[in-house]
Design a protein that fits this description.
The complex is a heterodimer. Chain A is α+β, with helices and mostly antiparallel strands. In chain A, about 30% of the residues lie in helices and about 20% in strands. Chain A has a 5-stranded antiparallel β-sheet. Chain A has a 4-stranded antiparallel β-sheet with strand order 11-12-13-14. The termini of chain A are far apart. The relative contact order of chain A is 0.14. In chain B, a hairpin with a 2-residue loop joins strand 4 and strand 5. The chains are: A alpha+beta, B alpha+beta.
């Protein structure tokens, strides 16, 4: 780990002023569960680390009749234990508990989950976010068992590591961001993540001197659930995750969203799966049909074809869980 | 890796050699941080060289100088001679370095020491003693919940924290709740028996 300056601003204005306008010069520190390891591995070696721990405006959960607002520095454990979150958004609670480590969720934050860097082992071993040696990606002919099966036509082949991203997108959440000079903007969760095209880009639409401040989740009475297919139930990332949300009134389903995690460089919204379920009654048959539809367009690499079947199963089980039929 | 990596400013070996003793007498470090100075009143930008901090560990204020890059684990082990928390993966994966910060279980390898300022840190040294063990420690002994013992301090801390939030867990809940700790000897059966018994005997 290289040495760095340590900044502890107490307001957002100070914090954004202390961030550089290009990636790599400064890093934002929330819970540190990802950043501290990244610093040790020197996949980032900033001159300055800006800690958000003293900014009280970023903490806490506020529920109103129409929405729940979650401060970015809320810990994952606090999120999963919140009464309003438990009542309205079980998909988020499951996503947190599946992380499988009380030590991670007690410190890791909601904002940090969204901004954590991918787990791609080429990236973590110094080959950059595009896993390149020279001009070529190491992924297609390398060990790509955990890499993307969707959205992997471009230079990015890794999978998004966010646990909350798929559920937040399915729930129609929006992410508020603050930049220098009190500029703020609101980004729909579905537009927050992106696949970088160059080595100096990151996996979200954040600018280097912007900070996620809070997440607004509308309360719309959607049935929702997350289902993950996992190698182990202790601390690990899943092979495939599926988050679903839909209205289920009068026995038929509408307003369906199906979002996959860990299959693409960004959470992958499957409009095909959503369309397949729309208007149906939730049962084994309709859920399986949606699971099948979710696999459309998958382009597995040499070592990750197994994920296609997992997508089918994860979507089916998430739908059944959301409807309370699992 | 900070304290044994070639890129770090101070290696543990060099640090100990320089001081000539294994135990760093923190009391000898000039008291540059009066206790009245709260963390919030410190300058908002410090480092990258060593900065004075005060850590509240097992009820005692300990003053030390660290670079901002030093992890809480390295500060505990290498600067304060609290070697109960173990450095195994150093990547926030194995749980051997678990301590409690404000009552919450934390991987001390993944928290910077400077981030723990102003918070209440409990290490395994702050639990029971050989003659007055906590319920968790007693249950670990009774159920032989270790083999080589290297993961044990982390597991004891993780179990203690887990029981404080889950006073009466089922076996399934205990398995899920302790998923952040690894035992390479595979003594999980004994550990689960220990945590369930400790729960019956009043938890932590």
């Amino acid at each position: 780990m290289k040495a760095f300056e340590y900044a502890t601003p107490s307001t957002l204005d100070e914090a954004t002023a202390q961030l550089a306008s290009s990636w790599g010069e400064t890093e934002v520190l929330a819970g540190g569960t990802d950043l501290v390891t990244a610093l040790k591995q020197e996949i980032t070696s900033p001159k300055r680390v800006v800690s958000l721990k003293n900014i009280s405006a970023l903490k806490g959960i506020k529920a109103s009749a129409n929405s729940v607002n979650v401060g970015a520095m809320t810990t994952l454990a606090e999120l999963a234990a919140d009464k309003a979150i438990k009542e309205h958004f079980p998909s988020l609670v499951t996503a947190v508990h599946n992380i499988g480590s009380q030590q991670i969720i007690s410190v890791g934050t909601v904002g940090g989950d969204l901004c954590q860097r991918p787990r791609c082992w080429y990236f973590r071993n110094g080959y950059g976010i595009l896993a390149k040696q020279g001009d070529a990606s190491l992924v297609p002919d390398g060990d790509n068992r955990y890499h993307a099966i969707f959205g992997n036509d471009g230079p990015a082949k890794f999978v998004s590591a966010s646990s909350l991203g798929p559920a937040l997108i399915a729930l129609g959440a929006s992410i508020k961001v603050a930049g220098p000079k009190r500029k703020t903007r609101t980004v729909p969760a579905g537009e927050f993540f992106r696949a970088p095209k160059a080595d100096n880009e990151r996996e979200t639409v954040l600018l280097p001197n912007e900070i996620v401040t809070d997440i607004q989740i509308p309360i719309r009475g959607l049935k929702n659930a997350t289902y993950e297919v996992r190698h182990r139930f202790g601390l690990d990332w899943p092979y495939v995750a599926a988050a679903v949300a839909f209205q289920n009134k009068g026995g038929t389903v509408s307003d369906v969203r199906v979002v996959l995690g860990h299959v693409a460089p960004a959470p992958w919204a499957s409009s095909g799966a959503a369309k397949a379920l729309d208007g149906a009654k939730v049962d084994d048959v309709s859920a399986a049909k949606a699971g099948q539809a979710a696999t459309q367009g998958a382009k597995p690499l040499s070592g990750n074809g197994y994920k296609v079947q997992m997508v089918r199963t994860a979507v089916k089980r998430a739908i059944l869980a959301a409807a309370g039929a699992a | 890796m900070t304290d044994n990596n070639v890129t770090s400013g101070v290696s543990r070996r060099g640090f100990l050699k320089g001081l000539g003793v294994g135990t760093v007498a923190t009391g000898l470090i000039p008291s540059v941080a009066p206790e009245t100075e709260a963390a919030e009143q410190r300058p908002a930008l410090r480092g990258p060289g060593e900065i004075p901090i005060t850590l509240k560990i097992n009820g005692q204020n300990r003053q030390l100088n660290v670079e901002p890059r030093v992890t809480l684990l390295d500060a505990l082990r290498n600067r304060l001679d609290l070697t109960g928390a173990k450095k195994v993966c150093d990547r926030g994966t194995c749980g051997a370095c678990t301590v409690m910060v404000d009552g919450q279980p934390v991987y001390s390898c993944s928290m910077l020491a400077v981030e723990a300022e102003g918070r209440m840190i409990t290490t395994v040294e702050g639990l029971g003693t050989p003659t007055q063990m906590t319920a968790v420690q007693k249950a670990f002994v009774k159920h032989d919940a270790q083999q080589c013992g290297f993961c044990t301090p982390g597991f004891v801390m993780a179990c203690t924290a887990f029981l404080s939030s889950h006073p009466n867990p089922t076996l399934e809940e205990a398995r899920a709740g302790l998923g952040g700790n690894l035992c390479r000897c595979g003594t999980y059966a004994g550990i689960m028996e220990a945590v369930l018994e400790a729960a019956k005997k009043g938890g932590a």
